[in-house]
Amino acid sequence: MDPTSSDLRLQLGRNLTHGLLDALGRAIVTGRYDNGPFPTEAELAKQHGVSRSVTREAVKMLTAKGLVSARPRQGTIVQPSSSWNLFDTDVLRWLLNRKFSVELLRQFNQLRIAIEPEAAALAALLADDGDRAAISAGLKRMKAAEGGADDALEADIAFHVAVLKGSKNPFFAQFQDVVATALRSSIQFTNRIKGHAASIPDHAAVEQAILKRQPDKARNAMKKLVGDVLDLINTVEIASSAAPKKRR
Q: Which distant-in-sequence residues (6+ apart) come within 8 Å of 205 by Cβ?
């Protein structure tokens, strides 16, 4: 194996299949193959210094995520973004890690506002003692993070994930990985604009409504929390569109 292939193998990491999957997924999402054919398995194996079995497995995983399709006599073809599985956390991560998009953040939070308020209402009705303790623990971590005793981003995510789990709805519960992945970009963006971390009182209002078994209040409190994020995104976009364009 030549030195170049060896270097490429090291870049993929110890798990060659997942390393190649990540490299190819990022390449597809960022449009590297928009104006050209997707490489054959033999070409990928040579380019990345891995075996055909590794490339074959990585391509199968890309196919499962909706990024490519294999067709007889046509080879592997990159699928349009409308076919991508946006609920796959790898796909969502690749989307969020490419060129920053306020529109993508808006769309994500539109999804959140359709799901999380109902999850909060269900949690107020159905959450058990363990769920309620996890929600309170998430809020406690957020308060600790204000004093530097915890990570603000991870604490915020823990709170929202606990609410989703507390809904006792398995579909909402499985949404937690999507929320955790996307919130990492959304929270960092909104905190940077606001200049401070998420509102403790707004999160506390959700927690208290759930603890007091008040579904309507829990729903409204969560709707306000996510709605404020959408309002902030819209404000930033309006300000950006109104700003004078720089001459080149």
A: 217, 221, 224, 225
Total residue count of the chain as it appears in this document: 248
**pLDDT, tens digit, for every residue of 117-140?**
999 999 999 999 999 999 999 999
The crossing angle, in degrees rounded to 10, of helices 200-211 and 102-126 is 30
105 pLDDT exceeds 80?
Answer: yes
C-alpha–C-alpha distance, residues 39 and 151, integer Å: 42
Q: Which residues pair with 75 in a beta bridge?
A: 71
Domains along the sequence of the chain with CATH: 3-83 (1.10.10.10), 100-242 (1.20.120.530)
CA distance 153 to 159: 10
| DSSP character at residue 197 | -
Summarize the chain as % helix, strand, coil (round to 5).
70, 5, 25
